[in-house]
Amino acid sequence: MRNLLPVLTIVATLIALWYAAAVALNAQWARDQAARAGETLTMSALVADTWSQDKPKLPAPHQVVTEIWNTTGAMVLEGRGFSKRSLFYHSWITFSATALGFLLGTALGIALAIGIVYNRTMDMSVMPWVIASQTIPILAIAPMIIVVLNAVGISGLLPKAMISMYLSFFPVVVGMVKGLRSPTPMQLDQMRTWNASANQTFWRLRLPSSMPYLFTSLKVGMAASLVGAIVGELPTGAVAGLGARLLAGSYYGQTIQIWSALIMAATLAAVLVGLIGLIQRITLKRMGMA
Amino acid sequence: MISARNLSLTFQTGDGPVHALKDVRLEVQKGDFVSFIGPSGCGKTTFLRCMADLEHPTGGSLAVNGISPEEARKSRAYGYVFQAAGLYPWRTIGGNIRLPLEIMGYGREDQDVRVKRVLELVDLAGFERKYPWQLSGGMQQRASIARALAFDADLLLMDEPFGALDEIVRDHLNEQLLHLWERTNKTICFVTHSIPEAVYLSTKIVVMSPRPGRITDVIESTLPRHRPLDIRETPEFLEIAHRVREGLRAGHGDAV
């Protein structure tokens, strides 16, 4: 509870700044409209107008909240919680691509890390490629992945998941290489004195030792996966998903819709990363490593 | 049990070769308690690591149990206790002791029996289900000794196992270690910095000196096998301690 007051203070400040920015950014439009109608706006009328425009440059917080409510809670109350206009529906589309991409990326990342730690050739050769792969702008490569996979008849969930995987395997490789190498020389010598096989050393020492590193990587990887899924939805012709909502919103100047999709995406990311954090706390506590 | 003839180990470094061990000769009989004492860099730990096949000598010959150190390691002929307890935090004390047994493929019931037995040997009965962080440093080190005793190895190699512990705990553990040695009939090679510890524990004290790492004196202890802690006040004990100190001084030139 002690943390509540500072947190609320910050939130209140941000919202106040947001309202002020909405006035500043939307005022020009309001004045132009009034001038065209041959009126002059009082200060209070100006402010009221900047907070209630249809297509504002920056929508006010309550407009975004109303839009989110209308496309989530209100639709659930009407029994249309999963219709194509619902943000829940779009979030689910994005989430399913994120989750699949995250799982694929984690598997790929762990597999590469094991190869790098155990195989000298891979140790010398793979890392530069892994790093190079991340220097390519994802926005450039995403449409090509979608197009190429579409050409071979793969469309829908998988191409988006591939883009998620492409972004999320990187932190897992880097973290797991460090984690699998985290046992001390003494611990490795000890395994040697017992004449332990490489397999036994991996399962009983290296893998458990790498857990703190793995979870840290998974958090970064999860956030990257979501970004990947949203980017993957942009070139699919704006069918469904939060990315499609963002794109459609920008086509039609629906800033309120863009902002509500943005906030939904941020919330989704926070929930997913928080979930991993929770699993991390429970696991590491049980392992005596927290 | 251990036989070293003209054993040498030279590390090649950027500043030229470093003679960690030079012409080391030593015979250790079965049932001996041998301490290796000397200043840092005298090669005592390196010698122990050679016995354990963790370092490879560059000259001379070394036999452990009549076979090469590598064969001895592969037949799991020795237990090695490191300076730090090195218990896995995610395993209970029992689980940690079970670890080498699992690796060596002992049966489940056999594991249970052995874990119970060695925990009693080191006075930790009842701590099987505790986690390492619930134990003091001294208790953790005892658990790590128990882990080295759990499998059938006649030889125990100990590298400054009590170096990080305070004097009172160390005294207590020394006493327990002697008990354990009497009861189990193991051969123990023990690396230490402490003269009283070496004299109190050993049947044979090997004094070493650095640059190049070599043995300067081997002292056969005349103390009885059974030793209460206050034997350290007797003239005989002080006599041996004096000889060790002389040996260290001689090997060190004017440095001390």
How would you characterize this protein structure?
- Chain B: Residues 4-235 form the ABC transporter domain.
- Chain B: Belongs to the ABC transporter superfamily.
- Chain B: InterPro entries: AAA+_ATPase, ABC_transporter-like_ATP-bd, ABC_transporter-like_CS, ABC_transporter_ATP-bind, P-loop_NTPase.
- The complex is a heterodimer of chains A (290) and B (256).
- With 290 residues, chain A is an all-alpha fold.
- Helix content of chain A is 79%, strand content 0%.
- Chain A has 2 domains: 4-58; 87-286, MetI-like fold (Orthogonal Bundle), CATH 1.10.3720.10.
- The longest helix of chain A is centred in the first third of the chain and has 33 residues, at 4-36.
- Chain B is of the alpha/beta class.
- Chain B has 2 domains: 1-58 and 154-256, P-loop containing nucleotide triphosphate hydrolases (Rossmann fold); 78-152, no CATH class.
- Chain B contains 8 helices and 9 strands.
- Chain B has a 6-stranded mixed beta sheet with strand order 5-6-7-3-8-9, with helices on both faces. In chain B, strands 2-1-4 form a 3-stranded antiparallel beta sheet, with helices on one face.
- The longest helix of chain B is centred in the C-terminal third of the chain and has 18 residues, at 167-184.
- The relative contact order of chain B is 0.18.
- Chains A and B meet through helix 9 and helix 10 of A and strand 5 and helix 3 of B.
Please estimate the helix content of chain B: 25-40%
Alpha-carbon distance between the termini of chain B?
34 Å
The first-level CATH class name of the largest domain in chain A: Mainly Alpha
Taken together, the total number of domains of chain B comes to 2
CATH topology of the largest domain in chain B: Rossmann fold
Please describe the biggest sheet of chain B, giving its number of strands, its sense, and whether it closes into a barrel: 6 strands, mixed
CATH class of the largest domain in chain B: Alpha Beta
CATH architecture of the largest domain in chain B: 3-Layer(aba) Sandwich
Chain pair with largest interface? A-B, 19 and 24 residues
